[in-house]
Batch of 2 targets.
Target 1
Amino acid sequence: MASAIPVIGSSFYGDWGASSMVGEDYSALVKSVPSQVPFGNRKVVRCKPMMKNINEGKGLFAPIVVITRNIVGKKRFNQLRGKAIALHSQVITEFCKSIGADAKQRQGLIRLAKKNGERLGFLA
């Protein structure tokens, strides 16, 4: 059936052998692939997952945040940032109570606030 279709050098029609690659392409491919792949006791190196802001250093307020962190110190800055985030979450919660939004909508608003904070540079 594959010989009835007059397509030369196509592996799509059932010709999976080396004849579909002719000339220099096939020999270059054979030379580029090692005959034995060493597995031995090579150590697999994996990157550690990092919780990092992809917009770090970007955003309108990022320079102010970085300067403040350098002046105040990292530990104290993280404490202040944590308090500010908690206060903002409380404000969102109170807003959701006042308009009658459920917990799922409240969580969506908190996530939206986090994304906006990242974009604006508050989490730099």
Note: Residues 62-120 form one domain.
Target 2
Amino acid sequence: MSDESRRADPPERMCPSTPRENATVFLGMITPAGRVAYVTPAVPAQVVLDDQADAADQDKPAGPVEARYRLAGPCVTTSCGFWTGDHCGLGARLSASYQETVTQQETGLPRCAIRRSCRWFAEQGPAACGPCSHVITDAR
């Protein structure tokens, strides 16, 4: 048996900033400082979304779920406005922009439940992780 035939299929690529309609994984909470506080191990998005629906009935914070939570889901490639035809343009732009504006790079990578399958990490490597923790999904 060749090494090629023993190699596992690559994981389905996940978008680390998806709207609730596509969400399968809860990545973390958005802190008051506007950063993601990641949770590990992975938590199914439905657990948080169901809790959010219950909270809405009890006059808890309103507004888009994506303003409070970071959600991940399968990368939809050609169905996404950021897809360039062969990679995620948003992940590439965020990584490049972050490298230009941050004077001191963060050391170490945040604990992330989807890194192994993350589209941004697969395409940009560790350079995607710094800006990722600053992203708040625009659910308009």
Note: Strands lie at 14-15, 25-30, 36-44, 69-74.
